[in-house]
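Let us walk through a complete example step by step. Step one is to write down the protein sequence. Step two is to encode the small molecule, calcium ion, as a SMILES string so that its atoms and bonds are unambiguous. Step three, shown after the inputs, is the structure prediction itself.
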Amino acid sequence: MPAHMRTLCAPRRNVLLGMTSALVSAGLSPELRAGTNWPPSGGHVELTRERVKRQTSIPLYRYRVARTYPHDRMSYTEGLTMVDGSIYEGTGLYGQSKLLQWDLETGRVLNHHDLDPRYFGEGVTVLNGAIHQMTYIENTRYTYDQRTFRRTGEFRYETQGWGLTNDGVHLISSNGSSAIMFRDAQTFDVVRAVYVTDDIGPVGFLNELEYVDGAIYANVWQTDFIAKIDAATGKIISWIDLGGLNPSPSVLIYPFVLNGVTVNTHTGRLIVTGKCWPHLYEIDLIRIR
Ligand SMILES: [Ca+2]
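Step three: the predicted structure of the complex.
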């Protein structure tokens, strides 16, 4: 990777201006957010800490860090999943997007694929020996052979691409709104959708996803919260408050937000991280409400 690209993702104050420019060009400017094409279908409501606190009927969890693992600070995490003992990670930003397979314990990279610099990588999931990777606003999904990392397909779809997971049958995607789409694993056609709600109304900005036993964990973009969602109804079952987990909150400020949730298949615990954060965190959940 050229030196100037490495520094673009280095989460230091003096490079944040460059990062912000990259994100504006990626379509995250306030002007575009306010435009008629944003957010995508499904609507959105910004989530606040006060809103979560008011919903006393929905269980609330905090966390205790059980383990930490190394994470590449050049990885602007957009997709994260653990399969067969390996972490599969998709990263974003133009000119830096990649697909990685690496060993959880050591961080050693086992497979690596760079995306075309014109594509901003997003969610990643692994189903039946194939890795699927979406892109942000390029309307393109790639497939790869899980074992060899050889690209096996390139497909078009209509929506923005954010998070991606699967339930063993369908691919499940988010697009920045409150909608979660269940898609045919071959055609990517939407076969059904759920609209995620808490006790107040729609919850939007759903980002990275992980399906586990009938529930979907979803990072809510630009917040410390992960929503646990009933995959059948879209109803939020519980909130996970990861406030305080950011290891360097004065440096890892927006856009280096919490993003990335999966399950350690050996221990059953959640693993979470953030964009360009130096660690993955394996956590125990502690119910406080
Ligand atoms: Ca995930």
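Step four is interpretation. Residues 1-7, 12-18, 20-43 have pLDDT under 50 and may be disordered.
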